[in-house]
């Protein structure tokens, strides 16, 4: 079946996710109002998938934009697939619902379509969202991720979220959930960094084998936030192979980068606050890459990440080998 801007993938719980979404993350120095304006433009030009998170600090603006577009008749609430994420200071089971309710209050929405565990790392619970000790090192907490997942399942059964999933998980962390006793709901998706230079082929194969959708962020290369991204890394959209193929099709490098992911069966998040680019990115359905072009683009993989979470390696080790 040909891909269109109306295309959706059926998740393993029966709900459907639009194959292209608008990402709303921006560095702290960016005005939060930009996210709201971008959401309004996106909904007006045809996007029906909006991705945000508690930690982004922009859900008030994003929620207001969604509600304005509902009020003026552009969309109905059921048309909009909205994603939010559980932050890492709320992994303790009794705090999971607290984080969700904060998002719902900011959004002024009755439910969230997809709720994800943002990262498989837990920080010390409290008001400080990035708690550190006197030496500046992160202060971790060690809730079993499976207990957090049980609380996520409770949110689904309470009707506060339609679907639940994870973000930034590898296959070992996914297996902890998939193999847990008494599992009620599998993760419907795993949202990870995935792009021309990091094609996540093994993780994609694993997810497909368990009917879990892979959802890609950083498809256009990342926001290059200095807190997360090594500024010496190459700019993905300047890649010569990507640009050669884009020129051949009369398309932008961003459109080709997105199209490559879509043809691999991956849900794509594309972030832009510029109206012309928001519209342009949705035109990714107007062309198709050949098998040879896909082979060439897949060959550009460097296993290179833009988003560096290596600073949290000790906690990741704990998650790989929890107390059983």
From TrEMBL:
Substrate binds at residue 118. SUPFAM superfamilies: NAD(P)-linked oxidoreductase. Residues 20-298 form the NADP-dependent oxidoreductase domain. One of its GO terms (molecular function) is oxidoreductase activity. InterPro entries: AKR, Aldo/ket_reductase_CS, NAD(P)_OxRdtase_dom_sf, NADP_OxRdtase_dom. It comes from the Eukaryota. The active site is at 56 (proton donor). It holds the Pfam family Aldo_ket_red. Keywords: Acetylation, Eye lens protein. The keyword Cell wall biogenesis/degradation does not apply. Belongs to the aldo/keto reductase family. PANTHER family: ALDO/KETO REDUCTASE (PTHR11732). This is Rho crystallin.
């Amino acid at each position: 079946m040909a891909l269109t801007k109306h295309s959706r993938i059926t998740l393993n719980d029966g709900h459907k996710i639009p194959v292209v979404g608008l990402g709303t993350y921006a560095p702290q120095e960016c005005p939060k109002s930009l996210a709201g304006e971008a959401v309004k433009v996106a909904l007006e030009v045809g996007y029906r998938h909006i991705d945000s998170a508690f930690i982004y600090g922009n859900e008030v603006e994003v929620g207001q934009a969604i509600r304005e577009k509902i009020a003026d008749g552009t969309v109905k609430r059921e048309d909009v697939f909205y994603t939010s994420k559980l932050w890492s200071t709320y992994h303790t089971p009794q705090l999971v619902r607290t984080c969700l309710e904060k998002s719902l209050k900011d959004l002024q929405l009755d439910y969230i379509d997809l709720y994800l565990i943002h990262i498989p790392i837990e920080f010390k619970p409290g008001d400080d969202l990035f708690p550190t000790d006197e030496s500046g090192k992160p202060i971790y907490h060690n809730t079993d991720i499976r207990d957090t997942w049980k609380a996520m399942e409770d949110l689904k059964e309470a009707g506060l979220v339609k679907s639940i999933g994870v973000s930034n998980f590898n296959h070992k962390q996914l297996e902890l959930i998939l193999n847990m006793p008494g599992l009620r709901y599998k993760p419907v998706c795993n949202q990870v960094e995935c792009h021309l230079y990091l094609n996540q082929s093994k993780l994609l194969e694993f997810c497909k084998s368990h009917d879990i959708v892979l959802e890609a962020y950083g498809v256009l290369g990342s926001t290059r936030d200095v807190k997360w991204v090594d500024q010496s890394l190459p700019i993905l959209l300047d890649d010569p192979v990507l640009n050669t193929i884009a020129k051949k099709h009369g398309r932008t490098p961003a459109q080709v980068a997105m199209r490559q992911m879509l043809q691999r069966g991956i849900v794509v998040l594309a972030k832009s606050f510029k109206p012309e680019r928001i519209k342009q990115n949705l035109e990714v359905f107007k062309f198709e890459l050949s098998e040879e072009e896909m082979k060439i683009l897949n060959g550009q993989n460097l296993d290179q990440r833009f988003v560096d979470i290596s600073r949290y390696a000790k906690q990741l080790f704990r998650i790989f080998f929890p107390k059983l």
